[in-house]
Amino acid sequence: MPVFDKTAPGYDQWYKTKLGSFADKVETCLAFRLFTPEKGMKVLDVGCGTGLFSIRLAEVGFKLTGIDVSQEMLEIAKDKAKRKNLEIDFREMGVYKLDFVDESFDAVFSMATFEFVKSPQKAYDEMFRVLKKGGKILIGIINRDSRWGVLYMSKSVRENSVFKYADFKTIEEIKGLDRKNVKDWGECLFIPPDAFELDINMENEKKLSETERGGFFCVLFGKG
Q1: d(C-alpha 49, C-alpha 12), whole Å
Q2: Has residue 170 got a pLDDT over 60?
Q3: Which of 20, 110, 137, 221 would be 15's cystine partner, CB 3.0–4.6 Å?
């Protein structure tokens, strides 16, 4: 998608800020709490972008295939993986028509991608198709019902960023993709987007979890 090609060069810069780094940390912790790694598993990373999670998954022993619609994002991902001596199969591909046979993967992982998926049921069904029996699907996404969701849906942000193309969703909407196969879920990023730097810490994250909605959530599905 051309819009993501244009943003690719600066995509990772936000994660170098204190708030971006903190968000990345708590989102990763939540994802790996739900998605227990087992070395040697064959995993598909849907919407891999610049390879942030593909690389992390490969580093803990998964056999990774990462797909994305942006060739520019993929080139950055390939370069990052090469510098870490990781063998990851990156491919330009959309989620609505996965070029894999049924039950190709032990697990399917998708972080911060379903915000831009206009037909989530179609995407989920295709991910479920390529998942082996006994496998897991994890979807992580910005929570529409949160202060982060309010920010990203605001006119000023949408007009000046890729979020003009986003379609934000709630926890219940994601669970509703396959409610009978929901295995677990969780929220994180209770720290608000306008927090002062001194307030960005795990102590406040834990405290705010008692009163705030998480800005990010993950839902884990299983295939019986």
Answers
A1: 10
A2: yes
A3: 20
